[in-house]
């Protein structure tokens, strides 16, 4: 069943259709620090359709677009009227072809460093780290975030990763590798695109979630690349999030 779930998450682009009245739901506060469902769905989506844009002022559409982008910095946003959408934008996308390593690299270069949501605890963060990571060390880094949940921010709040996407360089592998994660599921996939010999290999990661701390996550990844990651995991293992 787990393999089926991984296939469903990573081989099928995740679509989300919204109407312009969704704004109030995106800002709705839930008890006990829970993330509301509308926000979670926006964070998970690869393509977000905003419908009925002809029924509200442009200023409202702009505000909604900004709110969505603050939650999901990498998803494609399409605006529609009367549910009409160019099918070429949503069908036969090849969104998870191995060649998407090229398009993903370009997309990640244009994601702003940190985008706070209105909640202020949900953000999209991105960072770049040069170098090569051992696959085993990379798995430890991801699993500590998604599975073990041992990482906290400077305010001692648990970091909750909803979505993870990136392009990484794995030691002894000439190909670029795509990493994708949704909640506790993640996948590493080699692309046919090789790193150029005359350029520095650079890892680019985008994370969407709650209470994320860019500085801590970047230092953790640097430790992963430089193989000093054990020092960091030891520091956090006594503070497992529940």
TrEMBL record:
Catalytic reaction list: GTP + H2O = GDP + phosphate + H(+)
Pfam families: cobW, CobW_C
CobW C-terminal domain residues: 122-225
Keywords: Chaperone, GTP-binding, Hydrolase, Nucleotide-binding, Signal, Zinc
A GO term, aspect molecular function: GTP binding
Signal peptide: 1-19
GO cellular component, one term: cytoplasm
UniProt family annotation: Belongs to the SIMIBI class G3E GTPase family. ZNG1 subfamily.
PANTHER family: COBW-RELATED, ZINC-REGULATED GTPASE METALLOPROTEIN ACTIVATOR 1A-RELATED
Protein name: COBW domain-containing protein 7 isoform X3
Organism of derivation: Sapajus apella
Gene: LOC116559837
